[in-house]
Design a protein that fits this description.
- 35% of the residues lie in helices and 21% in strands.
- The protein is built from ten helices and 15 strands.
- It is α/β, with parallel strands linked by helices and 301 residues long.
- The protein has a domain at 63-261: 3-Layer(aba) Sandwich (Rossmann fold).
- A hairpin with a 4-residue loop joins strand 1 (43-48) and strand 2 (53-58).
């Protein structure tokens, strides 16, 4: 992999043949060159398609947020990590630097811990495309919690099904979202969903549309005050390469939604490879999670 960028079809086939003929060497080279590891792996790849079972970088230890954020602070700390373009052209765009991003992620991590979310815990994120979405999933990864992002357009039934299936204890949502000139009552959808979700202990709410919503005492809290009071640093939890990172569910259009568990190191590496090869990003500074952080320009927020 190294620092090449595929320029034509012949070069693509050259790289492809290398990956097929010696996959361990191919992925080992990428891992060595592009990532920060707390401990190197014992074995790059262990697969058994008869089960099926595939394991990547067994024995390695890392935290994906160190690769997304911390390693860039010295050189790129004052550069933009998140560019958020709001739905309303009259609303000011946000340019969040790497330093600001780290502070906000660490604050969120401390909020999660204060609310009882620990390593291995499950958090469902039901947010529109706003910076808090990226910040919350990075915070989950920072503390070793498993996040599951649910599209903030799904019904209360679809949401409750995913909450119960993954065993989440917390939901992160907002008072609402914009869809063009219209608003969507996300908190109302969450309230309806939680009628069938006995395992949820807390709901943290982002104020996005300044809507008058119902807040259930003892369960629901506004996120902003908690963030203001939270400590601005949190050491990244050291994770095994095969520790779960997030759960992504299928649409459920052909039956019950199926949750796909993505683990830490393998997901991180394949997403970087996609960015380098598919999108031809010349100056590689991102990892898998950070795809949604750079150039986040959306129209439905």
């Amino acid at each position: 992999m190294s620092n090449y960028h595929i320029k034509h079809l012949e070069e693509y086939y050259q790289v492809y043949r290398k990956s097929v003929r010696n996959p361990e060497s191919f992925w080992d080279e990428i891992a060595e060159e592009h990532f920060v590891w707390r401990k190197k792996w014992n074995k790059v790849l262990d697969w058994n398609f008869s089960k099926p079972e595939v394991k990547w970088f067994e024995g390695a230890k890392l935290n994906i947020t160190e690769n997304c954020i911390d390693r860039h602070l010295h050189i790129r700390g004052d550069k933009t990590a998140i560019l958020f373009e709001p739905n309303n052209p009259d609303e000011e765009a946000q340019h969040i630097t790497y330093k600001q991003l780290k502070e906000r992620v660490c604050k969120m991590a401390n909020v999660l811990r204060e609310k009882g979310i620990e390593k291995g815990g499950r958090v469902v994120i039901y947010l529109p495309m706003i910076p808090e979405l990226a910040i919350s999933l990075l915070a989950c990864a920072r503390i070793g919690a498993v996040h599951s992002v649910v599209f903030a357009g799904f019904s209360s039934t679809a949401l409750s099904t995913r909450i119960n299936d993954c065993g989440a204890k917390m939901v992160l949502t907002s008072d609402g979202s914009y869809r063009g000139a219209k608003t969507i009552d996300l908190k109302g959808i969450v309230d309806d969903a939680l009628e069938d979700c006995p395992g949820i202990e807390s709901v943290l709410v982002v104020n996005r549309i300044n809507s008058d919503i119902k807040m259930k005492e003892g369960r629901d809290e506004w996120l902003a005050p908690l963030m203001e009071d939270a400590y601005a640093d949190y050491p990244p939890e050291v994770m095994d390469a095969e520790d779960p990172l997030f759960i992504l569910y299928t649409s459920g259009s052909t039956g019950k939604p199926k949750g796909m568990m993505h683990t830490t190191a393998g997901y991180m590496e394949i997403q970087l490879t996609h960015l380098k090869t598919y999108f031809n990003i010349v100056k590689m500074t991102y990892t898998g999670v950070q795809q949604i952080l750079v150039g986040l320009r959306v129209i439905h927020t």
